[in-house]
């Protein structure tokens, strides 16, 4: 038995912890996962981190690594997807699918719209694109409260600091103090993709793990956590 | 600073304002708490001491989250302040609050150490000459600890300039309101190719913090010379 | 009683347990190093909280553990001259001096700062800070600071120990003036016999935290067994009046009708003075001596002879000027056939009457 | 601590080890640098002072990134250390390095303030009695600054226990290797439903840091009493 | 020359510029407060780096700015007794005392610690820390610490000022012993005439940073214009030998054939001593006095009469015991018809010859 060191975006922790131990049980290979922001992990891989597998929360950092030949391009897969949702406190009313005629300003009622950093963090970038495509961006731009990650945006809504927020569906579903008010159509923004790949120096077992991630039992776990599965 | 964009300049201005007020407003509390910890024995002293140090020990994100719970719009203290007309949520005042709280332990420690170095015999001498406790503090203790107070204040200022985790969690990152220099740096570091812009901002913060540090050394030395007799 | 002190306190090495009532004037605390003098002064100042006791100044209570009364130090209106100076290092000499004045009540008697500064010889260092002063300079500033605080009670813990003789001689009269003219009670710790002789209204001798002798200065000084500096400090204190200043630099005094000469002193003609005549400066003769350089001769009758442990004896002679004490050898007592009732002559050298033994009016005793 | 899972216990053990060594190894340097800054005048003194304070001023992520660049596998110092057989990249030693560097300014400041409070006259007295500079330092200065040294060390320890940003950026977040308590807290906070686990870990860190603080107060007070004469 | 000092240094208020060569023994630095005494001592100790100068002890150079030589303080092997104690607060009294011993070279002469501790009366406080000591106790420990460092040069800055007379009298002989038996050179700052008289081999009088008078103690003490404590400290120093201890507590001395009596002193029969006879204790008579209590009478011839500014004059009388100085009034000089060549009698009270004026062998002068 050998080891596999996985560098994964922090938002995958719950799912990967479970899948990792399943994999260990089945193969005897030990899986260790280092969770951090995709940007941090990508830089570490650039600078020679001994990771075998990298799972990013966005395609940009994976592209950078691929350009620099730090991953085996042929192992790269689009592992997961996600959906962007609008959330609010328990007293808000749901809207279902979000459309351009939605009166976001009225719903905010002078409050803030919590999002991850709209120019830096993937969830924020996607959210900004969606709002722009709905022509709602101009209207709410000045009311956006940005955080360094999606979970902090979720916390703003959960604590009532902000009436509304835009987060991933996978994040919203377990927080009891918020409800999903509506889902953004996925064509409003670049596809939300969590690419995965084996690093150039990845051990042979890395490919086995990557394959396992795409297997049925693993996909079940991801789906449980609210992730979207490409091709389904 | 022609090489800073307007947004970056705005972040710089905001960071300066936030750090300045964070330092200024916490300073009296810092001195008071440091004095109490150094000179008084009261029940709950260790508790106060622990409380003061909490922001140093906790991951900043946790501190930010706790701030959100207590000083947020729905938080008990947040509501209270709001009734007094002070809104901190998503305002630069909130950023200052976060920065002040994060810097508080450093400030208190520096001041406390310098208070402990003041010979109580001099304070006694002041008392025998008719000065009340408060007056002794103002005329003997305070001037003598001035180097420590200055050091503590500038340290707090520097720390406030660099504070990120608690600030962004508590008051988010609203350009012109709560987007401080470190938040901007963080944002640049998240995206591929953002290193150059981040470096520019880091250089600016280093220059400012070093300037403050040099100033504190100078002012502190001057004050120390005054105390020990030039 | 101007100063009333009762104290009980446990110290690591000894038990402080004393009480004394001192008349107005200067109360000198005397005792060996470590006998508890500073501790007593600190308790009076409120810097040490004794287990039990009471201190009152002119009837005004500073504390009384029985009543649960405890004035904090800053309400006691003290001028404490510390053994180790304790100047404020961050203030200039001038600021140190004026520190206490801020707090003095409006109506309080005020010393003239210029006069104090001049007397202490610190005028040229007003703008310097304590770190740049010599040991004696520091102590002089400390004295000035206490005096200028308009205190109702002065506490002085060996204030002159670091000063040279000339400076001592300049500052002593100032304490006298405080005692005589302004009548501020003073609690004064010293080892120096001359200071005791000159300043003390009453002397409290301490030993291991207990009072071993307490009385008017003239009594204590006349008793060799408790005289602060031992037998060499024994002396008589006479009440005199200035008669005349002679051209050859001598001053003539009237002591109960008898005449005494001593080197010129700065006092006015007609002024009343106290003058200490150290017993060891007095020579006795059983006939009127002739051809001696000593100008002062007092005829009297031997009152008592106390032989001590050593070779000496203290002979007390009743003269018109008052009782005079002479310290002579027991051998001389035998040789001269001195015994109570004998007529004899006390010879006192003019120059032996040093200015430092001449003080202002004798208030008590 | 039955309510901590094995992974959490592992993180706790690692954090303790990292903080302990970070403090222990930096302490001599901290004392030396503090002494140099407090007592010597040399060219570059202000530069050294600035350098020491840098980790306090920079956002931790930036510090971590700089560490990665210099001490990483490909970094100049990293290569040098590797040749000496010391690998810090992605090892607990690296976490200790990051924690040590982040805590260094706090340690130096505390020690420096207490050195400045020592009267040079006592050191002079030691010299006249025949003690060389080093000996005077060991027998006079060091015992007298002991409270400050202890305070500084424990402060550094507490800071090291709470360090997150630089650590995760420099050595990542590898369980059993570099996943310290705050990194684990971070990971839990990133996922839905992780709050409970995060809270548990936070409580544990608070208990440890408070314990250290109380200990430092106690030891420091004992030392101070020894110095000022019980 | 055992101690050679040359210094130039600028101080804020004055210019230090002095040089003196002192013979072996005790060199007393005397001068008013602020005259620069401590500054000189600090320069010798290496705590102050003077602009220019040179200091050598027994030919061993401590520094010489011309040669660029500068020994750091810890290489100078000093025992510095500071004016303000400077005890190590974190060490017990015992540890303070033994601090210097760690660094003393193997072969160095060592004082017996037990003896020093006993002499200083600090045996019961060995395990305490300085903060709990009284002012005088601290200073005694500071003295012990310096003595036990096996120094080649002792620097003492007003070491006894904080001590009581009894303690002074106990410690003075110790400095004498260091001077006479161990011949450690001592640079000693004091204001006290008795200490000067008893200890000083030579006296350096400072004023505003300059040497105003420098010479053997007996010369300086005989000169009223420079005598450290003014005219009252003028006195003659005689070389005497102990003859006999009498049963009545007196000791008889031989002074060049003449006999002198004084209260019992602890010295052995046959021992050579120096004895100071303060000029103001001497009475002159133009005929052999009779019936006087004073036991000591020396016949002599008036050598010179120096009238000062005041009412007094110093009469020098050649006696078999050596020159005796008497301070009398000018009025008496006239009354007795004293002039050079006259025969006269010097009368000295037995008890006036105090033990503190009796010292060990007179080495220099
Ligand atoms: N560190 C200093 N800075 C400035 N001036 C100083 C300093 N030390 C001493 N002086 C000044 O130098 C002069 C000589 O001081 P020094 O301490 O040598 O006097 P001293 O003769 O020892 O006096 P004392 O008998 O009062 O101790 C004084 O006028 C003093 O004010
Ligand atoms: N803070 C303290 N802790 C413990 N013991 C103390 C303390 N202060 C004084 N003492 C002890 O109490 C006794 C009396 O001290 P105090 O200072 O009153 O003496 P003093 O008579 O003023 O002596 P000196 O003339 O030497 O100044 C001494 O034995 C001293 O050691
Ligand atoms: Mg005392
Ligand atoms: Mg001096």
The two chains with the largest interface, and their residue counts, are:
C-E, 74 and 74 residues
Count all strands of chain B and give the number. Answer: 0
Low-confidence stretches of chain B: none
- Supply the CATH class of the largest domain in chain C: Alpha Beta
The value of Rg of chain C in angstroms is 22 Å
Mean pLDDT of chain B: 87
What's the number of helices of chain C?
8
Describe what is shown at a glance.
Chain A has helices spanning 13-27, 38-46, 59-67, 104-108, 122-133, 137-140, 150-158, 169-172, 204-213, 216-224; strands spanning 3-9, 30-36, 53-55, 77-81, 84-88, 96-97, 113-116, 144-147, 164-168, 179-183, 193-198. By secondary structure, chain A is α/β, with parallel strands linked by helices. Chain A has a six-stranded mixed sheet, with helices on both faces. Chain A has a five-stranded mixed sheet with strand order 2-1-3-11-4.
Explain the overall architecture.
The complex is a heteropentamer, with one copy of chain A (232 residues), two copies of chain B (230 residues) and two copies of chain C (365 residues). With 232 residues, chain A is an alpha/beta fold. Chain A contains ten helices and eleven strands. In chain A, the strands form two sheets. In chain A, strands 6-10-5-9-7-8 form a six-stranded mixed β-sheet, sandwiched between helices. Chain B is an all-alpha fold and 230 residues long. Chain B has a single domain, classed as Orthogonal Bundle (MetI-like fold), CATH 1.10.3720. Chain B is built from ten helices and no strands. Chain B is globular. The two termini of chain B are 39 Å apart. In chain B, 59% of the residues are buried. Chain C folds into two domains: 3-227, P-loop containing nucleotide triphosphate hydrolases (Rossmann fold, 3-Layer(aba) Sandwich), CATH 3.40.50; 236-360, RNA polymerase II/Efflux pump adaptor protein, barrel-sandwich hybrid domain (OB fold (Dihydrolipoamide Acetyltransferase, E2P), Beta Barrel). Chain C is 20% helix and 36% strand. Chain C is built from eight helices and 21 strands. Chain C is globular. In chain C, 55% of the residues are buried. The model of chain C has no long low-confidence stretch (mean pLDDT 84). The A-D interface holds A 5, 7, 10-14, 32-36, 40-41, 43-44, 47-50, 149, 151, 170-175, 225-226 and D 61, 65, 68-69, 72-75, 89-90, 168-169, 172-179, 183, 186-194. One magnesium ion binds next to helix 1 of chain C. Chains C, E: GO terms for molecular function: ABC-type transporter activity; ATP binding; ATP hydrolysis activity; molybdate ion transmembrane transporter activity. Chains C, E: Its EC number is 3.6.3.25. Chains C, E: InterPro entries: AAA+_ATPase (IPR003593), ABC_transporter-like_ATP-bd (IPR003439), ABC_transporter-like_CS (IPR017871), Mo/tungstate-bd_C_term_dom (IPR008995), ModC_ABC_ATP-bd (IPR011868), Molybdenum_import_ModC (IPR050334), Mop_domain (IPR004606), P-loop_NTPase (IPR027417). Chains C, E: Keywords: ATP-binding, Cell inner membrane, Cell membrane, Hydrolase, Membrane, Molybdenum, Nucleotide-binding, Translocase, Transport.
